[in-house]
Amino acid sequence: MKFRIIFAGCGDIAYRWLDHITKRDDCEIIAIVEKNPARAENYQARYNFKCPIYNSLEDAIAKEQGNLIIDLTYVTVHHDIVTTALRAGYNVLGEKPMGFTVDQVNDMLRTVDETGKRYIVMQNRRYIEQVKKIRALVTSGIMGAPVYLAGEIFVCADMASIRNQFKYPQLQDNNIHSFDLARYLVDGTPTSVHYHSFNPKGSMYTGDAAGDAVFEFDNGCVYSFRGYNGSEGCYTSWDNVWRVCCELGTVVWDGAGDAYYEYTSERGGIFKGIPYQSGVIKRPEVVRDQHDGALEEMFNALKTGKPAGTECKDNIKSIAMVLASVKSIEENRKIDIIFDDKYPYLTLK
Ligand SMILES: NC(=O)c1ccc[n+]([C@@H]2O[C@H](COP(=O)([O-])OP(=O)(O)OC[C@H]3O[C@@H](n4cnc5c(N)ncnc54)[C@H](O)[C@@H]3O)[C@@H](O)[C@H]2O)c1
């Protein structure tokens, strides 16, 4: 099977996709769609593409015969690109976050159901080796069920994009990485959130660049998130710093190096002199680009017909955490998150 790709959006992230795609012998970029011609020409020169550049996806679809659209525009545009592509009979692979409003994401899933086409969303953090191993340990049950997950991200981010101007720039763009990882690490589905949002004094952002949140998951685990996109110095990893407390043990990971864990066979055993058993999840010597693992799975899913881990029907559970957080901020209360397998797929109460 050969993927004939219409490639929409030539921003900062595009090279990560193109570095992977141009090494594959089952992919061909047949057209670029970009509102900013200089950006498109820059990528065309960098990868020596000879394909045409279009200003709109509709024009590209009208003139080209492809079978896959890649959407690397930003979150406010994803709904239009993805639904236009699906209705034209294309499968879509696209960057996070799926959409900007509850109506948009519900409509995107409805369009997937109506057209029978696929839409898979990039959540590259899941493909970090350490993350996969921590999830395997947590879900093995050896430490009992996960009960309390703490994650934090403190970085100094200039996204050099319209994304800087969002009302909640961290929450509405990058936090989905943290939230998706949280779900994945403890194998939980979110049921509620209470989010406190603020813009720290001296922040380089106009909108709120920081927040503290408490999410509840269906498996009883509570996830405490905190983060600031404009912190100065002593950054955390972009992959967050994590502490996963289970009934009988804990895993800690700084998001970069080795992860450590301790567990006991008996609750409170430490007070009876039973020592903790401990272990290390080593950081691999060679760390693969997260996008490579994700893209391999996405293309494989399209070839085999098998679901990808980040299929839109799964990913709505991550974008729901963002959209529910926005509602929590604006209504200053805890929000319940409800999923259905038919339209409306997501309801916030
Ligand atoms: N997975 C990751 O680790 C990761 C990292 C960075 C960004 N991202 C995501 O990737 C997406 C793109 O990020 P970026 O940093 O490249 O953004 P960017 O702002 O640099 O680029 C987006 C590009 O889309 C173009 N565009 C906008 N509307 C368009 C339209 N209707 N048709 C065609 N082109 C259009 C813009 O002109 C711009 O060049 C965002 O959703 C972002 O959240 C993901």
Question: How would you describe this protein?
Answer:
With 349 residues, the protein is α/β, with parallel strands linked by helices. The protein has a domain at 125-290: 2-Layer Sandwich (Dihydrodipicolinate Reductase, domain 2). Helix content is 34%, strand content 25%. It is built from 9 helices and 16 strands. The chain has helices at residues 14-21, 37-47, 57-63, 75-87, 102-115, 129-140, 169-186, 290-304, 312-331; strands at 3-8, 27-33, 53-54, 68-71, 91-94, 119-121, 146-154, 190-198, 210-217, 222-228, 241-246, 249-253, 259-263, 277-281, 335-339, 346-348. A 10-stranded mixed beta sheet has the order 14-13-12-11-7-10-9-8-15-16. β12 and β13 form a beta hairpin. The mean pLDDT is 96. Nicotinamide-adenine-dinucleotide (NAD) binds next to α4.
Name the CATH architecture of the domain at 125-290.
2-Layer Sandwich
Based on secondary structure, the structural category is alpha/beta
Distinct small molecules: nicotinamide-adenine-dinucleotide
Strand content: 25-35%
Oligomerization state of this entry?
single chain
What descriptive keywords fit this protein?
349 residues, alpha/beta, Dihydrodipicolinate Reductase, domain 2, ten-stranded mixed sheet, six-stranded parallel sheet, binds nicotinamide-adenine-dinucleotide
